[in-house]
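Query structure, 435 tokens:
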């Protein structure tokens, strides 16, 4: 059992993408809560969507832990801070356990090695039986600096299927800690940037409850909690990026949902006040805000509503006229432009504060970690770690100053990205931390 006052943690990792690690994580979190434990949650990597599902299951905000983009002292501090007051923290991995950028950058394995947390490996058993044990054994053998402490096999079709899986694990050194039955009705739908957002699922609580039942019935919760390791690190060691202003207005709704919790929390910790407003509800930023942050999200799915939001438009233009700093990332960057061309070819006027037109009609995937070096006078003078993940492309770009010099995680120079006019600025990159 968990010792009171000493938070412990583990990582739920997938052998592959689509292994079912999100549903297993949701089920595990809620099953442990049913046992009276206080459970915190986190997500490996630069994912904005999965943490909201983890938050719905745990009842507390979930954060990102990124072993490439976050300095290791800050990574350990954020983990310790998130786990403080909890009995156990469940961290959901990203992609397959060893998958990442060049050299495994940002992988779940890198996070496990950096934090010392053990890995609970989730294997999708569709199309295999005894071979699941061989997959677990191979993953455990490749582990360097961490332990694969057990496996949960997902998508188990029948009792006969379960018996064959157990037969394979009888020859393996990795303990089989759970068999989760196949249930297609609890699958979570996806779209072009990942899972459909938690706020858009009317039946999310029912799906989480069913995942809890499947995990509770099929997994050895005593062995799983025993396998969790003590959390190291000091919660007060994390260093935050300087805030954009003293009173920061942050757009927040399903079109502007991609703001990292650790950035907002860091700004609050530095003394900044944060106020949220919804462009989709045609709300403008507070008139006394000296900075506005338009995060990424899905403006392409709500372009008509954004174009028609007059109070939002007038409020942001008024802020620009009084000299507030206005910063947009990815979707927020697109909204700062002159127009957005959606997947059907329709043009929607945006805020028109930057000479930029973006579009989805001939979309192209841009994906990867970035090192950014600010050009000119920005709130952040230091090199930054960042991430790009978008299908939108630049249709046209007018005369404006550049915002960042960028390079890929491999060291490849990508040239300047993003633009600025005065104190209005943005790029397709999502800033994560200082380097």
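Result returned for the query:
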């Amino acid at each position: 059992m968990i010792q009171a006052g000493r938070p412990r943690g583990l990582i739920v990792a997938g052998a592959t993408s689509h292994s079912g690690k999100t549903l297993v994580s949701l089920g595990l979190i809620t099953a442990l809560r049913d046992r009276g434990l206080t459970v915190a949650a986190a997500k490996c990597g630069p994912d904005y969507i999965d943490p909201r599902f983890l938050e719905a299951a745990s009842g507390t905000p979930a954060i990102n832990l990124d072993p490439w983009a976050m300095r290791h002292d800050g990574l350990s501090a954020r983990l310790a801070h998130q786990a403080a007051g909890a009995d156990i923290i469940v961290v959901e991995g990203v992609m397959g356990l060893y998958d990442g950028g060049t050299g495994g950058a940002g992988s779940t394995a890198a996070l496990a090695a950096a934090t010392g947390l053990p890995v609970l490996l989730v294997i999708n058993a569709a199309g295999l039986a005894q071979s699941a044990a061989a997959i677990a054994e191979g993953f455990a053998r490749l582990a360097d600096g961490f332990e694969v402490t057990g496996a949960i096999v997902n998508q188990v079709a029948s009792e006969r299927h379960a018996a064959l899986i157990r037969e394979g694990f009888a020859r393996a050194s990795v303990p089989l800690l759970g068999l989760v039955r196949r249930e297609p009705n609890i699958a979570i739908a996806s779209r072009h940037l990942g899972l459909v957002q938690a706020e858009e699922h009317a039946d999310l609580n029912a799906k989480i409850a069913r995942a809890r039942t499947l995990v509770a019935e099929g997994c050895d919760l005593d062995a799983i909690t025993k396998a969790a390791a003590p959390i190291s690190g000091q919660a007060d060691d994390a260093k935050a990026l300087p805030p954009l202003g003293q009173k920061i207005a942050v757009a927040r709704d399903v079109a502007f949902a991609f703001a990292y919790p650790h950035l907002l929390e860091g700004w609050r910790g530095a003394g900044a006040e944060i106020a949220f407003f919804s462009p989709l509800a045609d709300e403008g930023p507070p008139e006394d805000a000296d900075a506005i942050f338009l995060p990424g999200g899905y403006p392409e799915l709500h372009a008509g509503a954004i174009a028609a939001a007059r109070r939002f438009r007038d409020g942001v233009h008024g802020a620009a006229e009084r000299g507030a700093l206005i910063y947009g990332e990815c979707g927020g960057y697109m909204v700062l432009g002159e127009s957005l061309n959606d997947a059907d070819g329709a043009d929607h006027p945006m805020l028109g504060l930057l000479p930029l037109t973006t579009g989805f009609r001939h979309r192209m995937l841009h994906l990867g970690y970035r090192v950014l070096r600010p050009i000119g006078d920005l709130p952040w003078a230091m090199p930054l770690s960042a991430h790009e993940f978008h299908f939108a492309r630049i249709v046209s770009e007018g005369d404006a100053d550049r915002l960042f010099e960028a390079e890929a995680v491999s060291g490849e120079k990508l040239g300047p990205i993003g633009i600025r006019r005065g104190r209005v600025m943005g790029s397709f990159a999502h800033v994560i931390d200082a380097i």
